[in-house]
Structure formats: structure tokens, C-alpha cells
TrEMBL record:
GO molecular function annotation: protein transmembrane transporter activity
Transmembrane segments: 32-63
Organism: Flavipsychrobacter stenotrophus
Entry keyword annotation includes Repeat: no
Domain of life: Bacteria
UniProt name for this protein: Protein translocase subunit SecE
Gene designation per UniProt: secE
Amino acid sequence: MSKLGNYIQEAYDELLHKVSWPSWDELQQTTMIVLVALLMVTGIVWGMDFGIKAVLTFIYNLLAK
């Protein structure tokens, strides 16, 4: 068997016998954690964007006068 064939066979065996897959409940729980974290980071970025826009608008208005 070639080195490539041996590598593919070993990878397949590892995937079937050595990898521990999460249960359905664990998968749902971690998915919810990721979604909540995503919403939090999105809110933080939105807040920073809103704040920077307000500051820059204030500065531009001062300079335009």
C-alpha cells in the first residue's frame, strides 16, 4: 500500500474509533452558547460603531462651523 493510501486508511480508522463525538444534547448546548456569544459580540461591535459615529459627527459639526 502506498504512503497516501496508508495515510487515508489511518485517518479513516482514527475518525471512526478514536474521535469522541458530542451527544445531541451537548451539541445543542454548545450551539446555544456560540449563538449567545455571537449576539453579545455583535452588540458590542454595534455599540462601538454607534459611539464612534456619534463622536465623529460631533467633531465634524464643530469643524464645519
